[in-house]
Design a protein that fits this description.
Length: 542
């Protein structure tokens, strides 16, 4: 009997979690199923399968997640086989604020159809609140699979087994998401001056013994740890003994360690809500189960600690761990050049703290790095190479726009150019709240300016005057020079917030091009699009 294959591509484990939950639902429905990491999937078996379900996120500018790269390349770029016997369905995870929303899923969906495969159900493109959309997709899949004779489709099971045995998957290389390198913190200090309204950390990690090499523009994945005090409060509120043993990923550890190192104790998984049905507020949680919109609003607006307070239940340790999402790694733009800092990699991290429902909250990874990652602390990391956000040739001019922690890759760019003695001109737009307290890497940037590594530096400190000024305002004021740089072939790079800043900068670029190039808005769009097509307009936004 041939199983349905559920294959996932993931960078932060959300797709992996949904894939295994999809497998559980299929098993409950009596469907034979195999769930696989895309890196473990033997693509040579594709012509012999009858049903393939792909669940994948998208990285960067429409790229596949790291574990999906080989399968994606085979299907999209290689000599992919025709697949007339295959049925498939794709569920993509993404964020609508990005230009290439769910692009990896869209590309795979279209290519499988082009290779002759039959679409089992329509592709689902899930936004950040992916639970409802994924649930609807799964419901359609289950309906479509009803009545299937799994022994009669897709070819010879023995052939599949033989192919799998003949091509065992190699162990993941050190420093990848599936096999992270444990790096030691070299230094960790606050970049902001006293009196700042925020905290931004410079974190340097040792790569000695890793064999890892990176280039400027790459990202680093960090596996964080949850706040021990938050874990203590959750376990106490649920009446769980911190030393109770639980099995996680085939390993027996204490429930306390499971919550500190392995599980997300901030975001509520819908499965956690079902534990509230056994408590004194069961009616409240039954109402949430019955009203999908209200349930999603609760999930979006509350944390696990809020659920603990609302539910008032005592739970089994294993049930608690099973009802929590995996603790996902966080990706940060690398802020160092390997030529300037051999054996090290640097990050620039905003520490997130805020209030919700009258309680202080913390960003998981940022406060781990900001509060509990001093020198010699060991942190699992992995390298996420970029394909597109690459520094151009030394002879070419670059314009960089990086407010706040968006400065990270551009510090790396400038260090790289300084180390290589690049002749091309460099122009940086940097923005923050206050010049006196938030001018990140000020001494180094001013040193680059004196040495000629940085040709021009324009700053925008939004709260230094009554009327707020942002990087896009500085760009508009310097529009004549900016357009002249573009005409001379300069590359434009942007890093930072995707939801507002990147959109405002994009709009300003169009205004600058239209005004100083004496073009229509449509021609300005074409001009900027041509820059992007030529690899001269590049984004690293989040």
């Amino acid at each position: 009997m041939l199983p349905v294959y559920v294959v996932y591509g993931t960078e932060t484990f959300n797709s992996e979690d949904l894939a295994f939950r999809t497998g559980e639902a299929l098993e409950e429905a009596g469907v034979p199923v195999t769930v696989l990491d895309a890196a473990d999937f033997n693509a040579a078996t594709l012509p012999h399968l009858h049903t393939l379900l792909l669940i994948t996120s998208t990285f960067g500018d429409g790229e596949p997640p790291s574990n999906m790269e080989d399968l994606h390349a085979l299907l999209m770029e290689g000599e992919a086989p025709e697949l007339p016997h295959l049925r498939f369905a794709v569920c993509g995870l993404g964020d609508r604020q990005y230009e290439h929303f769910c692009q990896c899923g869209k590309d795979l969906d279209a290519q499988l159809e082009a290779l002759g495969a039959t679409r089992l159900v329509q592709r689902e493109d899930c936004d950040v609140d992916f639970e409802p959309a994924w649930g609807a997709w799964l419901d359609r899949v289950l309906v479509a699979l009803q009545g299937t004779d799994f022994g009669a489709l897709g070819g010879d099971a023995a052939a599949v087994e033989a192919l799998d045995a003949a091509a065992p998957v190699a162990e993941a290389a050190l420093g990848t998401r599936r096999n992270p390198f444990v790096a030691k913190v070299v230094e960790n200090y606050n970049l902001n001056a006293p009196g700042a309204t925020k905290e931004t950390r410079h974190v340097a990690l040792s790569l000695v013994g890793s064999g890892l090499t990176y280039k400027v523009g790459d990202s680093l994945g960090v596996f964080p740890r949850n706040c021990p005090d938050l874990v203590r409060r959750i376990l106490h509120g649920l009446g769980v003994d911190r030393d109770a043993p639980v099995e996680v990923d085939g390993e027996w550890i204490t429930v306390r360690d499971a919550l500190v190192y392995r599980r997300d104790v901030v975001q509520i998984d819908p499965r956690l809500l079902t534990l509230g049905l056994a408590g004194p507020n069961a009616a409240f949680f039954r109402d949430l189960e019955a009203d999908r919109a209200r349930r999603q609003a609760y999930l979006d607006g509350h944390h696990v600690l809020d659920f603990v307070a609302h539910a008032g239940v005592r739970v089994d340790p294993a049930a608690l761990v099973a009802a929590l999402k995996p603790l996902t790694p966080r990706l940060y733009s690398i802020s160092s050049s390997p030529l300037m800092h051999p054996g090290e990699v640097h990050l620039t991290v905003d520490v997130l703290r805020y209030d919700l429902h009258g309680l202080s909250r913390k960003g998981v990874a940022s406060t781990f790095l900001g509060e509990r990652a001093g020198p010699e602390v060991e942190i699992p990391i992995y390298l996420r190479p970029t394909k597109d956000f690459v520094l151009c040739d030394d002879s070419q001019h670059i314009v960089m726009c990086g407010p706040g922690t968006g400065i990270a890759p551009f510090r790396a760019f400038l260090e790289e150019r300084a180390a290589r003695g690049a002749l091309g001109h460099s122009w940086l737009f940097f923005g923050a709240r206050n010049g006196a307290t938030d001018f990140l890497y000020r001494e180094q940037l001013e040193g680059f300016l004196r040495d000629g590594v940085l040709t021009r530096l324009d700053t925008a400190f939004s709260r230094d005057q009554e009327e707020k000024v942002y990087v896009q305002d500085r760009m508009w004021a310097a529009g004549d020079h900016l357009f002249a740089w573009f005409e001379a072939g300069a590359h434009f790079y942007i890093c930072g917030d995707a939801s507002r800043m990147a959109k405002d900068v994009h709009a300003t670029l169009l205004r600058v091009i239209a005004h100083h190039g004496r073009m229509s808005s449509e021609d300005a769009e074409d001009y900027l699009h041509a820059m992007a097509e030529d690899g001269r307009y590049l984004k690293d936004v989040y």
